[in-house]
Amino acid sequence: MSGETMETMKKELLIPRSAIEQRVRELAQEISRDYEGGELIVIGVLKGAFIFMADLIRCLAIPCQVDFTRLASYGSGTISTGQVVVTKDIEIAIEGRDVLVVEDIVDTGVTLSFLVDKLRGKAPRSLKVCTFLDKKRRRKVPFEADYVGFTIEDGFVVGYGLDFDERARFLPDVYVVTE
Ligand code: IMP
Ligand code: MG
Known about the structure:
about 180 residues, alpha/beta, six-stranded mixed beta sheet, three-stranded antiparallel beta sheet, 4 helices, globular, binds inosinic acid, binds magnesium ion
């Protein structure tokens, strides 16, 4: 039985794996050009970004070191309420380094604006954000990512690392949940 048939959530295909693969390669090329000759520290936001980050860094033409952070926002399910806490901090020192934060999706912008503020306090040389998906129209706080895989409309999406109550992260394509 394939992964897809094991996941019974009602959903519709939004971004097939072939399109994801191509877009990830394009993003990696753009990032590699922008940081040519340098070395990146790539910080993945757990858990959602782990698949995107793994694919992205393997397409980079420049060296990188990796680390992870994990944030929690109060409230569960599909609504984030605005209170963010760090539940796992980064472990690599980023002072004076070029840092790229990799996230699965920007929705209200609350999580990433909080994280970017926090990381700026550690005095990196530069700090940019790459997000796989961007729901631009749902911002509650102003936030612009530097690299965006796909801009999508409102609707809850799963797959390629993104979950709905911990389900469907493992799916290789991205779907919109329909129930
Ligand atoms: P924000 O703080 O509202 O921008 O929310 C960011 C976080 O909410 C993301 O890192 C995801 O974990 C989660 N999230 C927002 N929209 C979706 C979605 O459509 N599918 C899965 N997770 C989502
Ligand atoms: Mg996330």
